[in-house]
Amino acid sequence: MVISKPATGNELRRALRRLVYHPELSQADTDRQVKALIQHIDRRGLSLEHCLVAREEGEILSCCLCIDSPGHTSAVYLPSWLPDPDATDAITTLLLKAVDEAQGRNISFLQAIIPPGAGLEQQIYQRAGFERLADLIYMERELAEPLVVEKPSPSLAWTTYSVQTHQLFSRVVQDTYEGSLDCAGINGVRDIEDVLASHRGTGVFNPRTWFMGIADRDPVGVLLLSAVPEQGALEVVYMGLRPASRRKGYASALMEHAVRTARDASALRLTLAVDDENTPARRLYSRFGFEETMRRCAWVRILKSDVGRDRRGETACP
After folding, report:
1. Matching CATH topology for 2-129 and 139-295?
2. Distance between CA atoms of 242 and 177, rounded to whole angstroms?
3. CB within 8 A of 47, min separation 6: which ones?
4. Which residues have a Cβ under 8 Å from the Cβ of 312 and sit 6 or more positions away?
5. Which residues, other chains included, contact 132 with Cβ-Cβ below 8 Å and sequence gap of 6+?
6. Is it true that domain 139-295 has CATH number 3.30.70.60?
7. Residue ranges of the alpha helices (H) in the chain?
8. Beta bridge pairs of residue 240
9. Into which CATH architecture does domain 2-129 fall?
10. Cα 34-108-47 angle, rounded to 5 deg
C-alpha cells in the first residue's frame, strides 16, 4: 500500500468520490456531493490540499481529508462508508500519516465529528490516538415562531466587535471560559487569539453580529453570531457569561438579542450546537423554542498545548 497526495485534479476528485461514497447513492448523487464539498471549501476560502490517498496497484483504496481552519485547527474526514472491519487498517494508517503531517503544519488539534453509532469510525480514531471530547446536540429555532419570554430580561447595552474593541472582547471571552460546561477536554490547548480566529472562521464572519452585553458599564458576556447563507440561517458560534454575571437573567437577554438580530438579518432560522452535558444551556435553549435536529460525537487528537502561558485557554466546543 502506497500513501501519497492525489497527483492531479482528476485524482483528487476520485479521492473525494471515495470519501463520500455510499452504496445507496447513485453516481449522480455522489458527484453532486463532491461538487457541493468543493464549492463549500471555495466559499470559505479553505483548501483541499491536505488530502491523502492509499493506493494498491494504482487503485485508490481509501482516503483521509484534513481541512485546516483559522486558529490552528483541522477537521478530519474519513470515508462515510466502510465496507468491512478489514478496511480499518488502511484507514488507520492514513489517519496516522495525516496526524504526522498536521504536526508539521503547527496544528493545535485535529477534530472529527461523527454519528453516535459509527462504531468502526470510533475504533479508527481511538487507534490513531484520538479521544472522545463530547456528545454534541445540534439545535435550531424557526424564526417565524413568536418570541415568548417567561419574564422580562435585564436590560443590556451592546458593543460590537472591531479593531478598537478586540482586546476587550479577548479578555471577556477568556473570562467566560471559567467554569464553562462545554467541551472541557480542550481547555488550555490554544491561546485566545487562536480561539477568536477560529470563531471568525465559522460561517460568514460579520463584526456587526459579534456582541458584548454591558450592564452598568461592566461587560457581562458575549454573543457571537455568524451567517450560514446556504441554510438561510444565523448560527450562535459562541455565547458565554462571566462567572459573576451568571444566574442573573443575562443568558436570556443574550438569547433574546440573538433571535432579534437573526430576524433583522432576514434569516429563516437560528442554529447552534451544545455539549450534551451542559444542562443549564440546554434548558435555556429549550425555553427559547430550539429543537434538536441531530446528534454527533466530537473526537479530538491534541497535538500541542499552550499550557505554559499565563493566560487562560478555551473550554468551548470546537
Report:
1. yes
2. 8
3. 41, 67, 68
4. 174, 177, 178, 188
5. 122, 297, 298, 299
6. no
7. 9-20, 27-43, 87-104, 119-127, 166-176, 192-200, 250-264, 279-287
8. 222
9. 3-Layer(aba) Sandwich (3.40)
10. 25
Q: In what order do the strands lie in the sheet with 109-114?
A: 2-4, 51-56, 59-69, 73-77, 109-114, 291-302, 131-142, 269-275, 233-241, 218-228, 210-215, 157-160
Q: What is the pTM of this model?
A: 0.90
CA atoms within 13 A on the CB side of 312: 15
Per-residue pLDDT tens digits for 202-219: 999 999 999 999 999 999
Q: pLDDT tens-digit profile of 117-172?
A: 888 899 999 999 999 999 999 999 999 999 887 788 899 999 999 999 999 999 99
Q: 3-class SS at 68?
A: strand
Round to the nearest angstrom and report the end-to-end CA distance of the chain: 33
3-state helix, strand, coil in the chain (%, to 5): 35, 30, 35
Of the candidates 316, 91, 49, the one whose C-alpha atom is nearest the C-alpha of residue 190 is 316
Cα Rg of the chain (Å, integer):
21
- Residue spans of the domains in the chain: they are 2-129, 139-295
Q: What angle do CA 76, 232, 169 make, to 5 degrees?
A: 70
Half-sphere exposure for 99 (CA within 13 Å, toward CB): 21
Compute the CA torsion angle 144, 148, 243, 282 (nearest 10 deg). Answer: -70
C-alpha cell at 9: 485534479
Q: Tell me how far apart the alpha carbons of residues 274 and 141 are, in angstroms, rounded to a whole number.
A: 14
Residues 6+ apart with CB under 8 A from 98: 50, 52, 64, 66, 76, 110
